[in-house]
Amino acid sequence: MQILSGITLLAIVFAVLSSGSQSVASPTLPAASSAVGWPNQPGVKITREYPRDENGMRTALVRYKSIDAFLKCTTKRSQHTAEIQAISALSTDFHHSSHIGFPTLLDLFSTGDGYHCIITKQIAGASLREYVAQLSREEKGSFLQNFALTAILAVMHMHERKVIHGNINPDNIIIQPTTVSKNVFKVLFTGFEGSQPTSRSQTPSILGARGYAPPEDYFNAAVDQRKRDTWMLGATFFFVTNGIPPYGFAHSKTKGTFPPVSEDRLLRTMMKAEKAGKNSFPRIKTNRKGLLDLMERFLTYKAEDRVNIDLLTEDDLMVLVDDELDAKDSLLERTWAKLKSKMPRKKISGRQVKSPQDTDAWHEYQGNDGNQDTPLLASK
């Protein structure tokens, strides 16, 4: 496999910074028109170009020096820079993980017509939106518990690396399944163009998909970005249980679908919720109490009362263990069994249960081999 050397890549990143969904299983879309030969870069051949999004971003599947890759181009230099910084901070983490992953940066350049582009290694798999559509209602509950633990650890790791994702939603998460079962998979986070460095102070938000941005985005110029990531991950869990995000969509009785509401209606809904000081979205459709309680904490209306995902404890994550499943059939149990424990084991419902730190995902999160002396997730 041909990729840039670490020294070469860092040199390119430095030069660009100083100067100022990529799932294979994507839905079939008509090719977007483009100038002949665009982006006119040696070694880059577009194999499939997608329509530009509402922000003018251009994306395509490409062959890059014999490698299947993904091209993303924007005219917004700040978003381009943010994505480079985030991927550079995360791309080598979990490189050999079977649980968590991030894009691998191959190249970056600017075009003659004002686009700033990155090329990342193509990720095989389906977006979370596409993957969930294949699951039955019963399968979704088990999937979500397993997915939630992995996704939470991934976001905690981003924050530990001083990276705010900034645009978590079902289209920016890729599920890479295995042949074992639908509940054995790898979770890869993409879409870091809304990223920014973590900060103790509140900062303005950059991007947010309809329905997944938190309430405070509608009323405050600057917000707690860690709490914002927490909400967006909770809204993504809500999508798995309910098929839509908490806000921005409404049921059409005539069509039996959930089309987006108008911007005016969405704003009126958020203003009513703000006046009441509480959420007005539909009930969360799950009968798993532990999962429900955790989602409600993630989706607490007022940011100051919302849990900070970085401060979750071992006990918080233990609610994702399904006591009704035999240990051999639980993905969490099988995953946890591959790790060395850094915490005392605890009993739940009278039986011994491995802690989150007994898992491969945990050791990968802890420093990619579990070699850190102090756990990042402290039992409090």
Automatic annotation (TrEMBL):
Alphabetical list of Pfam families matching this protein: Pkinase (PF00069)
Keywords: Kinase, Signal, Transferase
Domain of life of the source: Eukaryota
GO biological process, one term: mitotic DNA damage checkpoint signaling
Keyword Secreted: no
A GO molecular-function annotation: protein serine/threonine kinase activity
N-terminal signal peptide: 1-18
Ranges of residues in domain Protein kinase: 11-318
Any one GO cellular component localisation term in the record: nucleus
Annotated segments matching region Disordered: 342-380
Family annotation (InterPro entries): Kinase-like_dom_sf (IPR011009), Prot_kinase_dom (IPR000719)
PANTHER family: OVARIAN-SPECIFIC SERINE/THREONINE-PROTEIN KINASE LOK-RELATED, SERINE_THREONINE-PROTEIN KINASE CHK2
Protein name, UniProt field: Kinase-like domain-containing protein
